[in-house]
Amino acid sequence: MKASHLKPDAYAAGCPTRQILDRIGDKWAVLILLLLRGEPMRFNQLRRAIEGISQKMLSQVLKSLERDGLLRRRAIATVPVTVEYSITPLGLTLAEAVDPLRDWAEQNLKEVLAAQRRYDAQRKALAA
Amino acid sequence: MKASHLKPDAYAAGCPTRQILDRIGDKWAVLILLLLRGEPMRFNQLRRAIEGISQKMLSQVLKSLERDGLLRRRAIATVPVTVEYSITPLGLTLAEAVDPLRDWAEQNLKEVLAAQRRYDAQRKALAA
DNA sequence: CCGTATCCGAGCCGATACTG
DNA sequence: CAGTATCGGCTCGGATACGG
């Protein structure tokens, strides 16, 4: 039985939705998962793929995702060392749950931006 | 045609996914949308429903959601003033896109927590 | 009841330098 | 190639007080 359509009375501090949202809030995390769904990737490969992420953040987020069981880290003893990150089955299910969100983003970003312009114009008019 | 299952080569800084994720990353925003889907609510009603949010944050996030066209603010001239927040059709579609994520959270939080315990135990063992 | 204004401390995050 | 370590600015966000 799904609870999706029941109206919640409140969101307690420790509820699952809050906890997972905190992780999704980590914007990089989701992007990494979506990328890894395609194929395993190496550290600097991810770094290049995600425009704007710093070495430090990437390292940090990868560690956190591994800790959560959403991806797997595999070090290969070459010289120099190669490290491969791949998504886990659990991570895959999360990525799938994020898909509708990405679709929504692509379809509705324009409308959101338009709403912002309307709002700002309105505020500007009031200020004058 | 849905783009969900195509492998992205990169996530540029301004892509829709990144932009929307930045907003979702605002953890409170999603919770508010999900709450308002049930029924319009007033300021302090929301405040009570979302455990732990400060007055400042609630005010801030509500303004941002209104700006994005995801909810509507309606002030009623009573004494003292009553303000009613309700979700817009656009906001409703976003809330629906978030549903799978909430379902995922409820179903998989346990497994994530278990993975964390395994990871931490492993690290502890190595440190010893 | 519904906010805004101000202060201020914690922690995020980028930059840089260094290691296996 | 794949990270760790350290420093410092800067933003986020809580607490408090006040106004419409």
Tell me what you see in this structure.
2 copies of one chain form a homodimer. The first copy, chain A, is elongated, with a radius of gyration of 19 Å. The N terminus of chain A is likely disordered. Chain A contains 5 helices and 3 strands; from the N terminus they run ααβααββα. In chain A, strands 1-3-2 form a 3-stranded antiparallel β-sheet. With 128 residues, the first copy, chain A, is mainly α. The first copy, chain A, has a single domain, classed as Orthogonal Bundle (Arc Repressor Mutant, subunit A), CATH 1.10.10. The interface between A and B is large, with 62 and 62 residues. Chain A binds a DNA duplex (20 and 20 nucleotides) through helix 4.
How many whole angstroms does the radius of gyration of chain A measure? 19 Å
Q: Number of helix segments of chain A?
A: 5
Q: Which two chains form the greatest contact, residue counts included?
A: A-B, 62 and 62 residues
The overall pLDDT average of chain A reads: 88
CATH topology of chain A: Arc Repressor Mutant, subunit A
User: How would a textbook summarize the main sheet of chain A?
Assistant: 3 strands, antiparallel
End-to-end gap of chain A = 54 Å
For the record, what CATH class of chain A applies?
Answer: Mainly Alpha
**Quaternary organization:** homodimer
CATH architecture of chain A: Orthogonal Bundle
Under CATH, the homologous superfamily of chain A reads Winged helix-like DNA-binding domain superfamily/Winged helix DNA-binding domain
User: What percent of the residues of chain A sit in helical stretches (DSSP H or I)?
Assistant: 55-70%
